[in-house]
Design a protein that fits this description.
Radius of gyration: 20 Å
Largest sheet: 5 strands, antiparallel
Number of helices: 10
Distance between the termini: 28 Å
CATH architecture of the largest domain: 2-Layer Sandwich
Number of strands: 21
Number of domains: 3
Oligomer: single chain
Strand order of the largest sheet: 6-7-13-11-12
Helix content: 25-40%
CATH class of the largest domain: Alpha Beta
Structural class: alpha+beta
Shape: globular
Strand content: 25-35%
Length: 322
């Protein structure tokens, strides 16, 4: 019997040659040599210490959004974090890594707490949200994080909000590694009138997402980061942009939506194999018909090349390729 397989069973449910397409929102990806589902925080720490000690290659997977798994799969251990407990102490919410962000947003509203209503409808886990500093509608997870517990270099550490080094779509975990174990979020209590207002606003945001994003087909969410522009870049680009909504975003927030650029280069609707640039939103690539990772990566490279040639901008992927 496989020694590593036997050892991994001490920490959670184990499968061999498990298709990653079953565990990513893109529904793309070859087999993971070992796939371990861990539901307990302490078991997760023990597993990571063991894998580090043995020098085994591993990847930590949450909700499977913002991920493109390669067609050849992953020659190592994929650790699926499925810890799903959260508790409230006054306005401080303690959340385990595997809790789904969108569901947490819904349930905190029902608990009459404000702070995560922007996250309703966003796939992925709270750990993934902290890792990539998820944001929407002018709010971000960084605005509410009190502290984070993480496993790093064989130790359990606690990091304050400042120590997480949040910036646009970035965190210290994304730059330096480490496995997020728990997150503490500081939210705000709602009175009855505020609760009703936020419920209404949340429904409007869900409807807006349904209209503007291709929810009907598998995707990994936005493929590229939006652009945070310097003053010099604003001066260069603003005269070329005639869309008042986009110029307003640049002037007010210094951000240029990547979806706009992709639309401008004529790539919306473009197909490569089973993958397609969404006709609804240029910054989404959808799995239109049994797409492969190679199909998606081909579209990504074509988009990057055309945007650079036309606009002088090098796009940066938001999705993680494993």
């Amino acid at each position: 019997m496989d020694v590593l397989y036997t050892k991994l069973k001490q920490f959670g449910k184990v499968k061999i040659d498990e298709p990653l397409s079953k565990h990513t929102t893109f529904k793309i990806g070859g087999p993971a040599k070992y796939f371990v589902v861990v539901e307990d925080r302490d078991k997760l720490v023990e597993l990571l210490k063991y894998l580090d000690g043995e020098g085994e290659q591993y990847y930590i997977l949450g909700g499977g959004s913002n991920v493109l798994a390669r067609d050849e799969g992953y020659d190592g251990v994929v650790v699926k974090v499925d810890s799903g407990q959260w508790t409230v102490d006054n306005n401080l919410v303690e959340v385990e890594a595997g809790v789904l962000l969108g569901i947490l947003g819904q349930e905190t509203i029902e608990a009459k707490l404000s702070g995560l209503e922007w996250a309703v409808g966003i796939p992925g886990t709270i750990a993934g949200a902290v890792y990539g500093n998820a944001a929407a509608f002018g709010f971000g997870i960084e605005d509410f994080v009190e502290k984070v517990e993480a496993y790093k270099d064989g130790e359990i550490v606690e990091l304050s909000n400042a120590e997480c080094e949040f910036s646009y779509k970035e965190s210290v975990f994304k730059k330096e590694g480490g496995a997020i174990l728990r997150v503490w979020l500081k939210l705000r209590s709602l009175d009855e009138e505020e609760y009703k207002k936020i419920k209404k606003e949340t429904m409007e945001r869900i409807e807006y997402r349904m209209k503007t994003q291709p929810k009907e087909k598998p995707s990994a969410g936005c493929v590229f980061k939006n652009l945070v522009l310097s003053d010099k870049e604003k001066e260069r680009l603003l005269p070329r942009i005639k869309d008042e909504r986009v110029t307003g975003l640049i002037k007010d927030y210094g951000k240029l939506p990547t979806g706009f650029l992709i639309e401008q280069i004529g790539m919306k609707g473009k197909k490569q194999g089973g993958a397609q640039v969404s006709e609804k939103h240029g910054n989404f690539i959808v799995n239109n018909d049994n797409a492969t990772a190679v199909d998606v990566l081909s579209l990504i490279e074509e988009i990057k090349g055309k945007v650079y040639n036309e606009w002088g901008i090098m796009l940066e992927e938001e999705i993680q390729v494993i």
